[in-house]
Write a structure and sequence with these properties.
Strand order of the largest sheet: 8-9-11-12-13-14-15-16
Number of domains: 2
CATH architecture of the largest domain: Alpha-Beta Barrel
Shape: elongated
Radius of gyration: 31 Å
Structural class: alpha/beta
Bound molecules: ligand C2E, calcium ion
Helix content: 40-55%
Oligomer: single chain
Largest sheet: 8 strands, mixed, barrel
Distance between the termini: 95 Å
């Protein structure tokens, strides 16, 4: 029987107006499914709790608890199972409450708990942990064994706020942060969280839209051969031209893209854009040039990365020999064997491979000989003081000689001065990339540069006589 029916029946036969009012009030303040008080009750009750607490030194906490991926259960097993689970979760949580504590159903799969008589923040942590623990035991709902995890956030009165709405909002925000940190976790509200989470959320949305609105651009930084002084390669560096925030550097959005999984779509876009640009330059009669694209480890973990890459090359018709993929030492952190197989497949397609930021990551010196790579890029931190620091010079000298003994091409990154160029030349470095020559430039400026090198190819190859 639903609460509506109960009320109708009662109202029908109770003549006592007071009783009817009590029942209506119960319905307004309670959730029909779990029988728990609802959000209206929580707000009103908190006002009362705060009024009564005044002059006392007691603390209390508002905890927000949410079942991770509840929607998945609801969508895949049906609302009936979802309802049974909510009821079971509420029963299990109720059994953990101390006398005087209050639990309400805040929303679909969200519960809020007021834990009273708290002496310190640690007590709140213990309550949250007990709840997380209790809910890890499986639930049996209509024959389905369900394993769930939960995220809990909490705010404490008075340290995190003294206003009812703010206490609730802060606990809710803390819960979202717990969710972002991973499943089965707990977080306290921290001041500034609002700002942080708002910034993150709006940045994430902005980035999502950046792709659709063509706000991302590919810039290209030339790589110079130290013997001939000619541009022999380019590295693609992503730029985000935001309508109101201006130019946002990749260091500020690539990590976010990696965290949110957006890197997959962005990385695919960069690859396609690069291949299209390379073909466009060829069609303008410019000489073919090798172009390096930075790959995130997340892209290599993408199951269909290889087929996606093949498809882009086929679609754009770019000769894979002109494409270079830049990978960091980080890929050697796990599943090394698997990664080597993948790298070999790239190689077999004709793609060039380079190790980026060499020397900053997981030391791959011993791995170098096992890796199917063509080029090693020495990170800027070793180049910065190379003209003045003998130690850095010695490191770079040994990286160069080791690379050459392994038949690898060496590029020094972040070269800014003539002195650095001179030292690198004396050490036998092959190529140089850095502001001393060029910053990353838009495609049209690269076109002018390549033309001025005077090695344009005839547009049409005349048939041999
Ligand atoms: P990176 O691959 O090490 O790229 C080199 C960075 O050093 C670039 O910064 C470049 O502009 C900068 N740089 C080049 N020469 C000099 C120099 O002489 N002095 C100094 N101080 N800096 C120099 P940028 O463009 O801000 O890129 C930063 C990082 O963002 C890149 O580091 C790369 O890890 C990542 N990134 C850029 N584009 C992409 C992309 O399309 N996909 C992925 N996954 N990552 C990208
Ligand atoms: Ca790079
Ligand atoms: Ca680099």
């Amino acid at each position: 029987m639903t609460w509506n029916e109960v009320i109708r029946l009662h109202i029908a036969d109770v003549t006592n107006q007071k009783q009817a009012e009590a029942i209506i009030s119960y319905q307004i303040h309670h959730d029909a499914l779990t029988g728990l008080p609802n959000r209206k009750y929580l707000q009103e009750h908190l006002v009362e709790v705060i009024e009564k607490l005044e002059d006392k030194e007691k603390l209390f906490a508002v905890l927000f608890l949410d079942i991770d991926r509840f929607k998945l259960i609801n969508d895949s097993l049906g609302h009936n199972v979802g309802d049974l689970l909510l009821k079971a979760v509420s029963d299990r949580l109720k059994s953990l409450l101390k006398q005087g504590d209050v639990m309400v159903r805040w929303g679909a799969d969200e519960f809020a708990i007021i834990a009273k008589d708290i002496n310190c923040a640690d007590a709140v942590v213990q309550i949250a942990e007990a709840m997380i623990q209790a809910l890890t035991l499986p639930f049996n709902c209509d024959g389905h064994e369900l394993h769930i995890t939960t995220s809990i956030g909490a705010s404490i009165y008075p340290s995190h706020n003294t206003e009812v709405d703010a206490l609730i909002r802060n606990a809710d925000m803390a819960m979202y942060r717990a969710k972002a940190e991973g499943q089965n976790s707990f977080q306290f509200y921290v001041p500034n969280m609002q700002e942080q989470s708002f910034q993150r959320l709006s940045m994430e949305n902005n980035l999502r839209r950046a792709l659709e609105n063509n706000e991302l651009l590919t810039y290209y930084q030339p790589q110079i051969d130290l013997i001939t002084g000619k541009i022999v390669g380019l590295e693609v560096l992503l730029r985000w031209k935001h309508v109101s925030l201006g130019s946002i550097p990749p260091s500020q959005f690539i990590p976010l893209a990696e965290e949110t999984g957006l890197i997959t779509a962005i990385g695919t876009w960069v690859l396609r854009q690069t291949c299209l640009q390379a073909i466009a330059w060829l069609n303008m009669g410019l000489p073919p040039i090798q172009i390096g694209v930075n790959l995130s480890i997340k892209q290599l973990q993408q199951k269909d990365f290889l087929s996606c890459l093949q498809q882009i090359l086929e679609e754009t018709n770019l000769d894979p020999h002109f494409l270079e993929l830049e990978i960091t030492e980080g890929i050697m952190m796990d599943n090394v064997e698997e990664k080597i197989v993948l790298l070999n497949e790239f190689r077999q397609m004709g793609i060039q491979l380079s190790i980026d930021d060499f020397g900053t990551g997981y030391s791959a010196l011993s791995y170098l000989k096992n890796l199917p790579i063509d080029t090693l890029k020495i990170d800027r931190i070793f180049i910065e003081y190379i003209a003045h620091n003998a130690h850095d010079r010695a490191i770079v000298a040994s990286i160069i000689s080791l690379s050459h003994s392994l038949d690898l091409n060496v590029i020094a990154e972040g070269v800014e001065t003539q002195e650095q160029v001179d030292v690198l030349r004396s050490l036998g470095c092959d190529q140089i990339q850095g502001y001393f020559f060029y910053k990353a430039l838009p495609a049209d400026e690269i076109e002018t540069l390549l033309r001025s090198q005077g090695i344009t190819r005839p547009n049409r190859i005349e048939p041999a006589q």
